[in-house]
């Protein structure tokens, strides 16, 4: 029993050291950076969505997939968290998807999607780590505003 407690304590200590050695996402020194071409931001970007739409929940996810050509797809995935005993389930309750063609203006990305939504995104870079983030703001066809800090999570692929 003492060996098990020692092992758990050691594992916990290593986890704390590993987590403390990285700067939290929120405390990084993000610097706006001009986008020079679509290839430099091509790929899949994900993040949590915030909005003034009362139907948007704090754990809705935003995904933006950008192709080398500037073609893009935006997906909002609405989930519901269910807890039963010791089990947690994040079930998808709805998916909203739109396609568009990005335009590059003054180093920023923008588009008007096929269903009427609009998006503007600015690339930000943390000079200390070279990590990149897209700060996206948008408006849907009903006039509600959205924003998300999107982290690159993969190469171009379907957003769904």
Task: Set out the fold topology.
Elements: H1 2-20, E1 31-33, E2 43-51, E3 61-66, E4 71-84, E5 87-101, E6 103-105, E7 108-112, E8 118-125, E9 132-139, E10 145-154
Antiparallel strand pairs: 1-8, 2-3, 2-10, 3-4, 4-5, 6-7, 7-8, 8-9, 9-10
What this model shows, in words?
This protein is mostly beta strands. 12% of the residues lie in helices and 51% in strands. It contains one helix and ten strands. The radius of gyration is 19 Å and the shape is globular. It starts with a helix and ends in a 6-residue tail after the last strand. The relative contact order is 0.22.
Total number of β-strand segments? 10
Q: Which residues form runs of ≥5 with pLDDT under 50?
A: 3-21
Class based on secondary structure composition and strand pairing: mainly beta
**Residue-averaged pLDDT:** 81
- Proportion of residues in extended strands: over 45%
- The rounded distance between the terminal residues' Cα atoms is 46 Å
Q: Helix content range of the residues, please?
A: 10-25%
Global Rg: 19 Å
- Strand/helix succession: HEEEEEEEEEE
Largest beta-sheet characterization: 10 strands, antiparallel
Number of separate helices: 1
Morphology? globular
